[in-house]
Amino acid sequence: MLNILAISGSLRAASTNSALSAGLAQNAPTGCRVIVYDGLGRLPIFNPDDEGERTPPQASALIDAVTAADGVIVSCPEYAHGVPGGLKNALDVVSRDAAVGKPAMLVHASPRSLFARAALAEIMRTMSFALFEDTALEIALLGKKPPEVDRILSEPASQLAMHNAISAFTDFIRSR
Q: For 149-171, what is each residue's pLDDT tens digit?
């Protein structure tokens, strides 16, 4: 069984990126489990002085989750042409050994998040994540209200796209 950790870079209650992460968990192929991380808003601001024995429990939990996962999926909004601070903070928390060589895939809930996509890919490559870029998953949810998001994510084409993206990612993980 492969375990994949899905992280949404949004803290909004009605986040389309969080909805996409949940949709991925519901459409995981056989032999794969997608676990949605929900602690982004509870992470303390990263401070290198608070590592090792001084690592805060919330940060340790994220580091342990990334370490234990076979791969990581990130769904990220774009704020002011960049990666949201909460997500960048989370990546800083895991920037040591947990990220090195860890397979990762980016997915998108907005066709307009081009700056954040590029910045996030650069950040994750710099951190030594093994970024899977052969298959891109984008389901346009930007500006949609929760009932419409639910309808779009439950459409057979969306479910198949999510399933196929995770399947391709699991193949990448297994090939490493």
A: 999 999 999 999 999 999 999 99
CA 77 to chain centre: 11
- The whole-angstrom separation of Cα 164 and Cα 86 is 29
Task: Kindly report whether the global pTM for this prediction surpasses the value 0.90.
Answer: yes
Distance separating alpha carbons of residues 144 and 147, to the nearest angstrom = 8
pLDDT attached to residue 35: 98
For a pLDDT cut of 90, what percent of the chain falls above it? Answer: 93
Q: With 0-12 CB in 10 A as exposed, 13-18 as middle and 19+ as buried, what is 8?
A: buried
Low-confidence ranges of the chain (pLDDT < 70): none
| β partners of residue 33 | 3
Q: What is the pLDDT of residue 136?
A: 86
Rounded distance, CA 91 to CA 123, Å?
8
Residues whose CB is less than 8 angstroms from the CB of residue 21 and which lie 6 or more positions away in sequence, other chains included: 6, 7, 8, 34, 36, 73, 75, 107
Q: Is 106 helix (H, G, I), strand (E, B) or coil?
A: strand
Q: Is 54 in contact with 143 (CB distance < 8 Å)? A: no
DSSP string of 42-104, one letter each residue: GPPPP-GGG-GGG--HHHHHHHHHHHH-SEEEEE---BTTB--HHHHHHHHHTTTTTTTT-EE
